[in-house]
Every structure is written in structure tokens, then in C-alpha cells.
Amino acid sequence: MKKLIFYCVLFLMTLGLSASTPVLPSVNAHQIMIPVGKTGKNISLAELSRISESELEALTGRKMNFSERLSFKLSQKKMRKSIAEDGTINKKKYAKFFAKKTGGPEVGFHGIGFILGFFLGLIGVLLAYVINDDADKKNRVKWAWIGYGISVVITLIIVIAIVASLP
User: Fold this and answer.
1) Which of 22, 106, 119, 148 gets the most CB atoms within 10 Å of its CB?
2) What number of other Cβ atoms are within 10 A of residue 106's Cβ?
3) In this predicted model, what pLDDT tens digit does every residue of 83-133 receive, in sequence order?
């Protein structure tokens, strides 16, 4: 009986490790528009990574000091390294950030959804469906179902352990 409980707990602990990582949608740097200056002009991320200091000063309408120019050049270098030849962003943290900003799917753990499913069961899953904020509803519902499934598995393990310990 102790072995069964041990293996069940071991299984639950490794459940999170075996989950596959979500695939981020490819985000094109030419489609991400960034407002520049107070004039309301927009420039794509790809253009911003290639623009010169004088062109940026003309767009913003103000002159940059030494520290701003240095910071701009370093940021440009990082941006150029994160943009592939075809225009897609190849760094995961930037792609994840811009996927959220451009309306891409929310990925990763959603704590509220998990708590709803784990502690409230099917009522929590129903609440996850009812809450309408459209930003990360799909992810919240997914994690509500995962939380509910984990609570069911834990309950089954406890019931099996109790039934097995009866004379």
C-alpha cells in the first residue's frame, strides 16, 4: 500500500515535468508598429532596428543626448539580433511579449483558472467559461480543467488509500 501511494505521489510530481511547452506563433517585426515621439507617427520594429540616430531625431522632433544615443545604439543591436532574416522575431521572450500585445494566444500557467478548477471543481470550470474578458479566456479555461483533473486524481488516490487500509 505504501508503494502505491509513493508511486501515485511520484506520478503527480512528474506530471508537470512531462507537459509539452506551448508553441508560440511567429510574430513578424514588420507588423509591430511602435509610436515614435509626440506627433503620433508609427514605425515598425524592423525599421526601428535599422534607422539612424539622425532619422530618429527627425521623427521625434528632439535631439538625443550622449546617454540616450548610447542606449539607442545598444537597444538597436539587441533588436537586430532578435529579428531573423525573414522578419520574424526569434527570441522567445520578445516573441511572447509581442504575441500578447498583438492579440496572440496567452500561453503558460494561469493561476486563477487553476485555483477555480482545483478548489471549486466543475463550478469553477463553469465560472472560468462565464468570465468574459477575452484576453486570456482560453488559457484560463484550459487551466481550470487541468486544476479540476488534478483535484479528481488526488481525491481518487485518497479514496483508494482509505479503502485499501480498511480491514
Assistant:
1) 148
2) 16
3) 888 888 887 776 667 666 555 556 678 899 999 999 999 999 999 999 887
CA angle 59/38/45 to nearest 5° reads 55
Q: Output the CA–CA distances (angstroms, integers) from residue 122 to 23, 50, 116, 125, 159, in the order listed.
A: 28, 52, 9, 5, 19
**Which residues sit opposite 79 in a β-bridge?**
none
| pTM for the structure as a whole | 0.47
CA distance 154 to 8: 9
Nearest to 141 by CA among 116, 167, 108: 116
Q: Which residue, among 23, 59, 21, 64, has the nearest Cα to 43 in the 3D structure?
A: 59
Integer Cα distance of 64 and 154 in angstroms: 60
Which residues touch 100 (CB under 8 Å, ≥6 apart)?
106
Sequence length of the chain is 167
Three-state DSSP string of 21-77: CCCCCCCECCCCEEEECCCCEEEEHHHHHHCCHHHHHHHHCCCCCHHHHHHHHHHHH
